[in-house]
What does this fold into?
Amino acid sequence: MWETFWPDVLVAVIGAGLTVLIAVTTYVISVRRQELRSLNDLIDDLHHRRAFDTHPGVIPGARSTEDYARVNRSVISARNEIRQARRGVRFDAKLREPLKRMTQACNEYLDAVEWEPDHYAIQVVELRAALTDEIRRIAAVRRGVHVLEPGGGASQPRNRPH
It folds into this structure.
């Protein structure tokens, strides 16, 4: 019995170590898959938002139009989804910073249109460009992220599983 004691201890320690290694690896893979899904879902949502599919221009009396209100609601909703995606990302500054800047861009849009509502269509185009730049930064850091322009798929049906 004693002649196999140390080999048995070694086998038990190695087995326990491998079990922990497999568990950690499985967890990391699961977190990365969820992170990728979260980022791509966000980008797909932004891509299909009609509010971002607009042309620049000054629209007199815009504050009283339904389109102005709809666009602002959509930007607020997008900002909330960006924040949610940021919560789903590991504490990796290379991914979290672009999402933070996307939130800031939405806030800047909302502030700008509060002061100059007639210029909201111009501000939407600028917001779309800022969001697109940040999406490209995310895709450069995280393999598997699709680069889609916000509003670019607004007229296309979504391909979502049932």
